[in-house]
UniProtKB/TrEMBL annotation:
SUPFAM superfamilies: Nucleotide-diphospho-sugar transferases
Protein name, UniProt field: Glycosyl transferase family 2
Domain of life: Bacteria
InterPro entries from the UniProt entry: Nucleotide-diphossugar_trans
Length: 320
């Protein structure tokens, strides 16, 4: 049994999930067994209309997250662990995964859940399966000049992002019992990344991937990608493009500034857009295979990468 977790905190989120659920309903029903967990923010009442939409596809249940932590990213982290505690305590046991599916993630193939199910079974004893974010560095100038004030300041490489699995991923159902409280503090995917680098136990798959409106056409044609995450995109436009298969160009976000009594309009970029561009540039070529890092004893800090050739062969054949 798999559990698809839909976390929401506003009516706009519910609207987007209804569109995603309508899209899922138009696809062929998955062969694997699954359910929905509708996780509402402590500040949001559980949505009856979201329950009605989800129940058309599979069994669904509400969770009104109890932890009173708000704001991004720590409010989302609190909702994540509330949801994982709920999944770990239910009657379905530890078989299968819990997919943390945010409202800017959209299935793009009819067999998307069956493909994830097959890859999860091939991954063995892992805690997380999803889109791997690599180590990302950026160049920064030193604050100190050498010898002469006229000499250019030296350029240093600084780590911007540490390698981890992006939060929109598949998690072991009893994850909350597998992770110590030390790693449940802080932003959930970053702290889990710290744990997985030390102890292993994850699977990186090209089936779940970041995408943007600019590269969506290419990603939709990629047979290895089944679930796209439009990180930092206009969410409604991204969903429309995924569902219809047609590129959408949303108007750029703008801000108005007063300059000597006149308004000037400037495009306002999200502060993390350079980070996303660096992630997409730094990622290794995505092969149609799983990269499985086995779980190691806690006393060891090095991870060993294992390729499962037999499972990769079957996955490549199915993708073809």
């Amino acid at each position: 049994m798999h559990t698809i977790i839909l976390p929401y905190f506003s009516e706009a989120e519910i609207d987007r999930y209804e569109r995603i659920l309508d899209h899922m309903l138009s696809m062929e029903a998955p062969k694997c067994e699954f359910e929905f967990l509708l996780s509402a923010s402590p500040r949001t009442e559980p949505s009856d209309r979201l329950m009605q939409s989800a129940s058309r596809i599979a069994s669904a249940r509400h969770l009104h997250c109890p932890t009173q932590v708000f704001g991004y990213p720590f409010g989302a982290t609190a909702m994540f662990w509330d949801s994982m505690r709920e999944v770990a305590s239910d009657r379905h046991g530890t078989e299968g995964f819990a997919l943390w599916m945010e409202s800017d993630m959209c299935p793009v193939t009819a067999d998307w859940l069956d493909r994830l199910d097959e890859q999860w079974r091939c991954s063995g004893d892992v805690l997380v399966m999803g889109c791997e974010v690599p180590d990302v560095y950026h160049n920064c100038q030193s604050k100190f000049r050498l010898y002469s004030p006229f000499r250019a300041r030296p350029i240093k490489k600084k780590k911007w992002i540490s390698r981890h699995i992006n939060g929109g991923a598949c998690y072991r159902r009893d994850l909350v019992h597998q992770v110590s409280h030390e790693y449940q503090d802080g932003i959930f995917d970053v702290r889990l990344g710290d744990l997985l680098r030390e102890q292993g136990g994850y699977s990186s798959t090209p089936a779940i991937a970041f995408s943007t409106l600019d590269r969506l056409d290419k990603d939709l044609r990629d047979p290895d990608k089944v679930l796209l995450h439009g990180y930092l995109q206009d969410k409604d436009s991204f969903l429309t493009a995924c569902i219809t298969g047609e590129a959408v160009s949303p108007p750029p976000p703008t801000e108005r500034r007063v300059f000597f009594g006149r308004f000037t309009v400037r495009a306002k970029a999200h502060p993390s857009e350079p980070m996303l561009a660096a992630i997409l540039k730094a990622k290794d070529p995505e092969l149609p295979a799983l990269k499985i890092v086995e779980r190691l004893p806690q006393s060891r800090t090095e991870t060993a990468t294992a390729s499962v050739s037999s499972s990769n062969t079957s996955l490549q054949a199915k993708a073809a």
